[in-house]
Design goal:
alpha/beta, 12 helices, 12 strands, binds beta-D-ribofuranose, binds calcium ion, glycosidase
Length: about 300
């Protein structure tokens, strides 16, 4: 089973990513780490615990809270899309389970140092925790099997140039993209092929159990906000795409390209500058995800949600 650490900021699509990662037999999720992003750090940590409770995940799965904001910039709000809790829609009780005592950054470092070089990091929020881990323990870069990032784009959703996760903490993104670790970038060009349509949501709603109901409630909310904010008919399940890639890399086509992160542009901070034309001479450092095999992706989600009801 492929070992992953899911670093997230739940988040509607982050919640789906957690459910897919915890529910799929070919992955071993070593822990969930949380970061400020879609909401403040205390809220994203609480939301992660709530997802674990809804899904009945084992208490032995650690949830470690991490950075409370970007490395150098103020935190951006995301409440127009995700609501004030960061995960509005379902009505959930306060979680009974507790956070693990270890800080997310220390957990990531420890897991990598204790590993045989077979742990994949899956950051699906701002890259603050991963950057801090790389700064605190540079030796870990060589021990990471792969980093599968949800972030970046050929077009932006936060500014015309930048995607939300990388715009939130461009300096952190730069550290990660320059780390030398094997990196796959799952940007908006890929995740906007993963829009949860009414037809897909009807299939989710037809499944039995608490998990499909939870997903339905999450996507009822975020479908509305995506309409209001972006005029889109359906919200993508961005973060779950990264997890799906860890389960089956054949779900994507990718291109190996040079990508650098803009940190200083007046209009372009957080932009993924992708050398598609090969004009810079800089060596390729990132596998950029380009196409999603939707005919395999949607069944993967449905099968995994359905499995929760059967245990
Ligand atoms: C990303 O931003 C967040 O709001 C989502 O959870 C996703 O990780 C998409 O740009
Ligand atoms: Ca996210």
């Amino acid at each position: 089973r492929r070992k992953i650490i899911l670093d997230c900021d739940p988040g509607h699509d982050d919640a789906v990513a957690i459910l897919l990662a915890a529910g799929h037999p070919s992955l071993e999720m070593l822990g969930i780490t949380t970061v400020a992003g879609n909401a403040d750090a205390d809220k994203t940590a609480r939301n992660a615990l709530q997802v674990c409770e809804v899904a009945g995940l084992p208490e032995t799965l650690p949830v470690c809270a991490g950075a409370s904001g970007p490395l150098v910039r103020p935190r951006l709000p995301a409440s127009k899309v995700h609501g004030s809790s960061g995960m509005d829609g379902p009505v959930l009780a306060q979680p009974r389970r507790a956070l693990a005592p270890e800080h997310a950054v220390d957990f990531i470092i420890r897991m990598l140092r204790e590993s045989a070089g077979d742990v994949t990091l899956v950051p699906v929020g701002p890259l603050t925790n991963i950057a801090l881990a790389l700064r605190k323990a540079p030796d870990i870069a060589a021990r990471i099997e792969e980093i599968v990032v949800m972030g970046g784009a050929y077009f932006g959703n936060k500014t015309p140039a930048a995607e939300f996760n990388l715009y939130n903490d461009p300096e952190a993104a730069r550290i990660v993209f320059e780390s030398g670790a094997k990196l796959t970038m799952v940007g908006l060009e890929l995740t906007h092929q993963a829009v949860a349509t009414p037809a897909f949501l009807a299939e989710v709603a037809a499944l039995e159990g608490a998990v499909p109901r939870f997903v339905s409630e999450l996507y009822a909310f975020v479908t509305q906000t995506y309409k209001a904010v972006y005029g889109m008919d359906g919200a993508p399940v961005h973060d779950a795409c990264c997890v799906a890639y860890c389960i089956d890399p054949e779900l994507f086509t990718t291109r190996h390209l040079n990508v650098v992160i803009e940190t200083r542009g007046e209009y372009t901070a957080g932009m993924t500058v992708i050398d598609r034309g090969g004009v810079t001479g800089r060596p390729p450092n990132v596998d950029v995800a380009e196409r999603l095999r939707q005919e395999r992706f949607w069944p993967l989600l449905l099968e995994t949600f359905a499995r929760y009801g059967q245990d």
